Amino acid sequence: MSQYNLQQPNTIQWFPGHMNKARNEIRDIMPDMDVVIEVIDARIPFSSENPMVAALRSNEHGIQKPVIKILNKADLADPDLTQAWIDELEQNSQVQAIACDDNKANDVKRIVQMCKALMPNKVGTGRQIKVLIMGIPNVGKSTLINSLAGRSIAKTGDEPAVTKSQQLIKIDNDIMLYDTPGMLWPKIENPNSGYRLAATGGIKDTAFDFLDVASFTAEYLIKAYPELLKERYKLNELPDTDWEFFEAAGRSRGLLKKGGVVDTYRMAEILINELRSGTLGRITLETPAMRIEEDKFVEALRAKAEEKRLAKIEEKKLRKKRARKNRK
């Protein structure tokens, strides 16, 4: 088992109907696109990277359209790990990556420049560069679009799945942006990714057990960011386990119910809300090394599932064979 507590497959899933519609629409328009922008969360670059994007931007010959990976909300993420992720993502020659805080004008200008650099033959010709922008729910895509356009066009909000239909947005004389609804994928195979998506707000809060997600998050933070937890919740010593942490931090915050019992659920809510807002500090919930390890874990899950599927087929064949024998 992993030192990062790879979870057994009790995976969080959330795939509303409009996401399936968006996937089909993207498949239809992708051949006409010049550049793809995928907005991912700098705190979870691996878990917020939609595996359908690579498949959708490949043609029948396996040639992929260039993609710009925007590590959004970089002001909330660990800067050292953000750079490590940029280096990791750019190992693929068809990928360019940039850390972005959508409130910084310079970051937004760089994105426009990168799009034009990828299609220089269209700049200033009147032939627009068609740019498709994609991202998971609540990753800040709509806010980024408004910054790119220099005006309020896309709906924004703190809840996932605010944008539910495709929009065309003119950025300047050279670039036409095709916006799509925030989109997850039908099956989140990596259970840890499901937890991280839930912790950072990529999955609607009603779609998962809040305390379960907070426990997963606390367990990681105790190992990866102990000093931030001690400072924020005024703890002299940091407990070793998630439940002991909720007890200690909750008592420190005065979250006591009748009889002096700590309200651990309320403490769990505070932890997740302060992680999401950045109050807890600049935190990244995964590293490139964890990606390699968890990819192996998912492959093992797939192999096990395939083994079960083949076993069922063989069992079905045997039943049919016995039935034929009994009829004779």
What would you say this structure looks like, in words?
By secondary structure, this protein is of the alpha/beta class. It folds into two domains: 17-179, P-loop containing nucleotide triphosphate hydrolases (Rossmann fold, 3-Layer(aba) Sandwich); 209-277, Conserved Hypothetical Protein Ylqf, Chain: A, domain 2, CATH 1.10.1580.10. It is 46% helix and 10% strand. It is built from eleven helices and six strands. The protein has a six-stranded mixed β-sheet with strand order 3-2-1-4-6-5, sandwiched between helices. Helix 2 (51-56) links the parallel strand 1 (35-41) and strand 2. Helix 6 crosses helix 7 (210-224) and helix 9 (242-252) crosses helix 10. Residues 157-164 have low confidence and may be disordered.
Summed up, what is this model?
By secondary structure, the protein is α/β, with parallel strands linked by helices.
Just name the CATH architecture of the largest domain.
Answer: 3-Layer(aba) Sandwich
- Counted by DSSP, the helix tally is 11
Give helix and strand order, one letter per element, not per position: HEHEHEHEHEEHHHHHH
Count of extended strands: 6
Give me the secondary-structure topology.
Blueprint lengths: L16 H13 L5 E7 L9 H6 L10 E6 L6 H11 L5 E5 L5 H14 L10 E7 L5 H9 L17 E4 L4 E5 L11 H10 L9 H15 L1 H7 L9 H11 L11 H14 L10 H40 L1
Parallel strand pairs: 1-2, 1-4, 2-3, 4-6
Antiparallel strand pairs: 5-6
List keywords for this structure.
flat; 11 helices; 6-stranded mixed β-sheet; 328 residues; alpha/beta; Rossmann fold; single chain; Conserved Hypothetical Protein Ylqf, Chain: A, domain 2
